[in-house]
Write a structure and sequence with these properties.
- The chain is built from 16 helices and 17 strands.
- With 382 residues, it is an alpha/beta fold.
- The strands form 4 sheets. The chain has a 9-stranded mixed β-sheet with strand order 9-10-8-7-6-5-4-1-11, with helices on both faces. It has a 3-stranded antiparallel β-sheet with strand order 12-13-14, with no helix packed on it. The chain has a 3-stranded antiparallel β-sheet with strand order 15-17-16.
- Helix 1 packs parallel to helix 2, helix 2 packs parallel to helix 4 and helix 7 packs parallel to helix 9.
């Protein structure tokens, strides 16, 4: 049996593919900058790319925009202003749209923060990762602790809300190292903290030359003590790796995790779109390499594919079960177009394993154990 799909909120992801250098843990589509970034050309291609995606908008306003990368803060303030002005000419913005730009803590970037804010950016996400020089060097980062702290001060004075990205489980990291990093991040008083464990991904330097990572017992202690530290400082965990002051959750990421829609423009950007009238959900992927993306054919779409009925439960729960918030039967049905009976057996199994709890007749929620053993919980829906 199937149900009717609804059109969820629509976000926009904008991929900026250049970095000063490639980090050994990074598996994103990023390219070390060689010479000057071809800003004017790339901006024009981004807007052409978006124009081709306009049929997917289906009358919606934009809920959020996220500049990711790569290192979006390598762009000039004018380039960001031109992108946002061009986007708004093509798609209307919601009144309270969230516009996030990822930034490195280097001096050249944080001096642009007020210019980015003037262009329309209202949320900055700073890739700090650690405050310890030996850890930063091991991660291939090119900033130091003072630059990270100065960048946070610039962000706080430029925009209403800013995030600090911080990693734990780093090469040769002790419990004391990790907690020291977290304390220093909290002292900077960001409205949002993304605090996540380093994972070794295929197609990275760390995968071919694995570093010495902390033992599982140390990782467990880091997570337990870190969580208590964040809680005591007034940060509310709302997702496995995301903590925010009250009312400062990231709207863009929430839309991903709630199985909302998003357009993806730029090199290798992915999109997910609901076509409610056809009971279809599709995913899109753009051409990966900057040179291929900016050639003269304007053929940005690399591939597009349907999310098949059998795959929808896994794709929905892979996102939704990262959140601490409950989920409802009707939400599942509206976002997947499927009847809840399709997953009832797996839901009951999750309850038996104490990974899920039932709050009411139609409402369920991951337990603390379910968040801790997220992979086991999601595997039920494969």
């Amino acid at each position: 049996m199937s149900s009717s799909l609804i059109l969820p909120p629509l976000s926009l992801y904008i991929h900026i593919p250049w970095c000063v250098q490639k980090c050994p843990y990074c598996d994103f589509n990023s390219h070390a900058q060689k010479g000057t970034i071809p800003e004017t050309e790339y901006v024009a291609n981004l807007l052409d790319d978006l124009e081709q995606d306009l049929p997917y908008v289906q009358g919606r306003k934009l809920h959020s925009i996220f500049f990711g990368g790569g290192t979006p803060s390598l762009l000039s303030e004018q380039a960001v202003a031109n992108i946002l002005a061009g986007v708004e000419q093509l798609i209307q913005f919601e009144d309270d749209i969230e516009i996030t730009l990822e930034a490195n803590p280097g001096t050249l970037e944080y001096n642009k923060f007020s210019g980015f804010a003037h262009a329309g950016v209202n949320r900055i996400s700073i890739g700090v990762q650690s405050f310890q020089l030996d850890k930063l060097k091991a991660l291939g980062r090119i900033h130091n602790d003072n630059e990270a702290k100065t960048a946070a001060a610039y962000a706080a004075s430029s925009v209403n809300t800013f995030n600090i990205d911080l990693m734990h489980g780093l090469p040769d990291q002790t419990l004391e190292d990790a907690i020291s990093d977290l304390k220093q991040a909290i002292e900077l008083n960001p409205t949002h903290l993304s605090w996540y464990q380093l994972t070794i991904e295929p197609n990275t330097l760390f995968y071919s030359q694995p570093p010495q990572l902390p033992q599982d017992e140390t990782l467990w202690d880091i997570q337990q003590q870190g969580h208590e530290l964040l809680k005591a400082a007034g940060y509310i965990q709302y997702e496995i790796s995301a903590y925010a002051k009250a009312d400062y959750q990231c709207k863009h990421n929430l839309n991903y995790w709630r199985f909302g829609d998003y357009l993806g423009i730029g090199c290798g950007a992915h999109g997910k779109i609901t076509l409610a009238a056809d009971n279809k959900i599709i995913r899109t992927e753009k051409v990966k390499h900057p040179k291929g993306y900016m050639d003269l054919t304007k053929a940005y779409l690399n591939k597009v594919w349907d999310v098949e009925m059998d795959d929808r439960p896994f794709e929905y729960f892979m996102n939704k079960l990262r959140l601490k918030e409950p989920f409802c039967i009707h939400e599942f049905q509206q976002h997947t177009g499927l009847d809840f009976e399709m997953v009832k057996e797996q839901i009951n199994k999750g309850i038996q394993l104490t990974l899920l709890t039932q709050l009411s007749e139609d409402k369920y929620q991951p337990t603390a154990k379910g968040l801790q053993f997220y992979n086991d919980l999601v595997d039920l829906f494969l």
